[in-house]
Write a structure and sequence with these properties.
By secondary structure, the protein is α/β, with parallel strands linked by helices. It has eleven helices and eight strands. The protein folds into two domains: 92 residues; 185 residues, Metalloproteases ("zincins"), catalytic domain (Zincin-like). Helices cover 42% and strands 13% of the residues. The protein has a three-stranded mixed sheet. A three-stranded mixed sheet has the order 4-6-5, covered by helices on one side. Strand 7 and strand 8 form a beta hairpin. Helix 2 crosses helix 3. The longest helix has 21 residues.
Length: 299
């Protein structure tokens, strides 16, 4: 059986040690890249060659640099997880617990100052966040005692073809970040406001572990609170109708060639807000495809 990689001397590239170990354990070519990613400390991509990627040529493993100090049992757990996934529950639990403990020991990440700006070309996120806190989170004292910071994300063309993350909440920085594709006249203010609301909601309801050991980012309490948002159905309808336009806009760096008025909703906001939450839920469950779409857009 292959032994875990040894940290013998400083002249050995740590990524090379991992590469040699995993290549032997998994019996295939492996590329290992160290990162500083905390939200996804380790991930694996299949490398393909041939016409339309018809042949698997190896694996690319991207792991946080903290794995350089991982003990032998974690090396074995990584190999088991890559090989078998959730069919190796013991390795998954061991790896997950070690990652969480190791992340907790890391110093807080330093935010790049050039990205910390709430004032956009067409709307100011700080004003929108203040309104969300005063209205939707009026009774949540912890958010008023320590309100999250908010900023637009980096303005650069996206490489994604099929999905787009419109917002995120970083618990380490206690910061909400909004994709700059939403900073354009074609996107309604009420849609951007919901994205801000959704991300702030993560500060109240952080991810929890499920029975299978996986992390649940939108738990029962989160979804129940979210469905009580006055514009919830209108937001999802607009999102479904304009997702492709948003993806194209983010990828090309060009504004959406539609006007805000092009989208109409038959029921006014005031009327929806007056309907009790229970009645709104009884109006009909949203299609599963819409709920899955929402999971791709938000953290």
């Amino acid at each position: 059986m292959t032994t875990a990689p040894q940290r013998a001397s400083d002249d050995i590239d740590p990524a090379a040690r991992w590469r040699a170990y995993l290549a032997t354990e998994l019996d295939c070519p492996v590329t290992v890249v160290y990162t500083r990613a905390r939200k996804t400390p380790i991930r694996v991509r299949t490398q393909r060659t041939g016409p339309r990627g018809s042949r698997i040529s190896g694996l690319e493993v991207r792991m946080h640099a903290m794995f350089d100090a991982a003990p032998p049992e974690i090396h074995k757990a990584v190999a088991s997880w890559i090989r078998s996934g959730h069919r190796a529950p013991r390795a998954c639990r061991l790896l997950d617990d070690w990652i969480q403990a190791s992340l907790a020991k890391l110093p807080p990440p330093r935010e790049r100052k050039e990205h910390a700006h709430a004032s956009g070309h067409h709307r100011d996120l700080a004003t929108m966040l203040a309104d969300v806190l005063a209205t939707d989170f009026a009774r949540d004292a912890q958010l008023h005692a320590r309100p999250p910071r908010i900023t637009w994300g980096r303005r650069a063309p996206s490489r994604s073809r099929g999905g787009l993350r419109l917002g995120s909440y970083d618990a380490d920085l206690h910061r909400v970040r909004i994709h700059p594709v939403l900073d354009q006249p074609a996107v309604p203010d009420w849609f951007v406001r919901y994205v801000v609301f959704h991300e702030v909601l993560h500060a109240l309801h952080p991810p929890v572990k499920g029975a299978d050991g996986s992390w649940i980012h939108h738990g029962r309490e989160f979804r129940a609170r979210e469905k009580r948002y006055a514009d919830y159905r209108r937001v999802l309808a607009w999102e479904k109708q304009h997702l492709r336009a948003l993806v194209r806009s983010a990828r090309r760096g060009e504004p959406i060639p539609i006007a805000t008025e092009a989208f109409a909703f038959t029921q006014p906001v005031a009327a929806r807000a007056s309907v009790p939450a229970v009645e709104r839920e009884q109006e009909g469950l949203l299609p599963r495809a819409v709920r899955l779409l929402q999971q791709l857009l938000f953290d």
